[in-house]
Write a structure and sequence with these properties.
The chain is of the alpha+beta class. The protein is about 40% helix and about 20% strand. It contains 14 helices and 15 strands. A 15-stranded mixed beta sheet has the order 4-3-2-5-6-7-1-8-14-13-12-9-10-11-15, with helices on both faces. Strand 5 and strand 6 form a beta hairpin. Helix 13 packs across helix 14. The longest helix is centred in the last third of the chain and has 33 residues. The chain is globular and about 65 Å long.
Length: about 500
């Protein structure tokens, strides 16, 4: 993958190659904020048909502890199957803890569902519930999906726990396409530590679970991985994805459920494609979140013009978030290729550096393309945009609820460009401008005809934000005074 340094022909090729690999490993560690951990066994799990049985088996065999990062745990047939398994584990003395995202749970499970888990002894904490003093805090979600059982076996995935991932054969609804992995080995410690950090931030201090260090977990295989635990503003996955786009030499194949690429990342993909790299992007043909689908589609033209091949999945919802490059690097996890996932949420991904696993990922990707349609520049779309049909009796998925940030940035960037003229707009962005213009004109009409209908909500929001900022200012001043030294005992110079 890496060649010898042509500037030093006298240097032995193997020495130069080893040096370049060390530099690449250092670059990846710094970009991702995660070290490369050797000695793991990694198994690729496709769709709910492979993921759910593996999770349930691990839960049923648990002897001491189960920790679970959950975004959606639905009160339906599959959700209740997992609830029963988790409750049974707690009843036999296993400590079971669930960190459930507050927004992801809205409309998915009843109070009685969670009460049953509590009755079994399952500990549940709610991540980032709505708070009056943080009006926009709900935009940042714990979007991670992971399990760790007995500190020895871990799962990192894009799947939530709900019937729609299995589909509904009686109503002709196929299962969702998604991807996860099972890990055994020292890297499981990193998944467990990521859970403990968010658990401790989501409730009162309790007796901490003893989490094993990497060195305390025996090697189970020969695969090296990085566990990328992204938090808001850290952008570990974004830096990793951009670095892979810059280093890829042959192939870069991406699958994403809610693609709304940042301009800098789109440019990285275009530069790779124009340099001869086979860059492909597989996205849903129909989506549970139509607005996000339209925002992503508006960005296809610069990708296609730059030589990137774009494909739309023909089946039910494509929910996977994966990448594979050069038959060497792969990434599986919860991070979507949009600003909400990269910079706003808590996300969890595993980057795998192994030729065998990468080949398996490439084979899975090629199988997916056999059920996809390629989008070609200059040709009309093959069908009108449609929303994904949900199974009867199920709630609309909340999986992309926090993607408002990505949408606002995309629409805001297009409107700003139209008004400021700082970049050339493309025909695909006409829809975004039309929608923005309709909203603004409608708002203006309402303001002219019913001024109070606009003034009163704006005033209430202003009061809310003003009170919130004042409370924050008071807290900061009090904290500053508490840390300041007494006036009678000024600090001495040189002390």
């Amino acid at each position: 993958m890496l060649s010898a340094n042509p500037m030093h022909p006298s240097q032995p090729p193997d020495v130069s190659l080893a040096s370049l690999r060390l530099l690449a490993e250092q670059a990846f560690s710094r970009a991702a904020g995660a070290p490369l951990v050797a000695g793991n066994r990694v198994k690729l799990l496709r769709d709910a048909a492979e993921n759910y049985p593996a999770w349930l088996e691990a839960i049923e065999r648990a002897g001491s502890s189960i920790v679970m990062n959950s975004y959606i745990l639905a009160d339906d047939e599959i959700g209740n199957r997992f609830a029963a398994a988790l409750g049974a584990a707690a009843s036999r003395g296993v400590r079971v803890r669930i960190l459930q995202d507050w927004l992801g749970a809205r409309g998915e499970a009843s109070h009685a569902f969670w009460a049953r888990l509590h009755a079994f002894g399952v500990e549940v904490r709610w991540f980032n519930p709505f708070r009056f003093e943080a009006p926009l805090g709900w935009l940042r979600r714990n979007h991670r999906k992971s399990f760790v059982v007995d500190g020895r076996i871990g799962f990192v995935t894009g799947l939530c726990i709900a019937q729609r991932w299995l589909g509904n054969s009686q109503h002709g609804i196929p299962p969702w396409r998604d991807t996860g992995i099972q890990i055994e080995g020292p890297a499981v410690a990193d998944i467990a530590h990521a859970f403990e950090a968010t658990w401790s931030d989501s409730g009162p201090a309790t007796a901490k679970e003893a989490v094993q260090a990497r060195g305390e977990i025996p090697a189970e295989g020969d695969i090296s991985v990085r566990v990328i635990a992204t938090e808001p503003a850290t952008a570990g996955a974004y830096r990793f994805d951009t670095l892979v786009a810059g280093l890829a030499r042959r192939t870069l194949w991406l699958t994403d459920a809610y693609f709304v690429g940042l301009p800098s990342y789109v440019q990285a993909l275009r530069a790779a494609a124009m340099d001869g790299v086979d860059v492909r992007l597989l996205v849903p043909g129909s989506s549970d979140l139509g607005i996000v689908k339209r925002l992503g589609t508006a960005g296809f033209r610069p990708l296609l013009a730059g030589g990137i091949r774009v494909f739309e999945w023909n089946g039910s919802m494509l929910h996977a978030k994966t990448a594979v490059a050069d038959g060497r690097w792969a990434r599986v996890g919860s991070t979507n290729l949009n600003v909400a996932s990269w910079m706003g949420n808590w996300e969890l991904d595993v980057a795998i550096e192994d030729d065998g696993f990468a080949r398996e990922m490439e084979q899975a990707y090629e199988a997916d393309l056999s059920n996809a349609t390629e989008i070609l520049l200059g040709l009309p779309r093959r069908r009108p945009e449609r929303r994904l049909r949900a199974a009867p009796g199920t709630n609309r998925v909340r999986e992309g609820s926090a993607l408002a940030t990505a949408g606002v940035i995309r629409v805001g960037g297009t409107v700003t460009a139209a008004l400021g003229g700082h970049r050339l707009l493309r025909p695909a962005e006409a829809g975004l401008l039309s929608g923005a213009s309709v909203v603004l004109l409608a708002l203006a009409a309402v303001a002219l005809v019913f001024p109070r209908a606009v003034a009163i909500p704006v005033a209430l929001v202003a009061v809310w934000l003003g009170i919130t900022l004042f409370i924050d200012a008071v807290k900061l001043r009090r904290a500053g005074r508490a840390k300041s030294p007494p006036a009678s005992d000024p600090p001495r110079i040189g002390s």
